[in-house]
Specification:
It is built from two helices and five strands; from the N terminus they run H-E-E-E-E-E-H. The protein is α+β, with helices and mostly antiparallel strands. A five-stranded antiparallel beta sheet has the order 4-3-2-1-5, with no helix packed on it. The longest helix has 28 residues. The radius of gyration is 22 Å and the shape is globular.
Amino acid sequence: MNQIIQEIEAPLIKDNVPQMNIGDTVKVFVKIVEGNKERTQGYEGVIIKRRGSGVGETITVRRVFQGIGIERVFLIHSPRVEKITVQRRGHVRRAKLYYLRKRTGKATRIKEKVTGKKDVAAAPAAEKAPAAKAEKAAPAAEKAAETAEA
């Protein structure tokens, strides 16, 4: 890409976008303006397509609502997209999941990706747990020391 275009797009690109792939179930939180009020609405579905790069990168999210398939295209770096969370990682062998449009019911299920490594989101929680145990152990050690002194 042209260096000048990259310099112009650099401040517009979000850095808090999670790693997501085709087949993942995601929840996209979008800012909606109704009159003079602004609220956030979640849209959960499966990523069936990803295209573009830079500021123009988009994902197409598909979900079935009341028996009707709805697809919505989101600009990943748009200011209207508040955040994107990955609910479930899917294991697929295609770059575009257009075949899901023809399927209904259980045929649209996607296998969950099995990974040997811990997810990035689970790692910080695991680091906090030992610290919490150490904090709980400290008061118990103080009580033992007090009883030994008495």
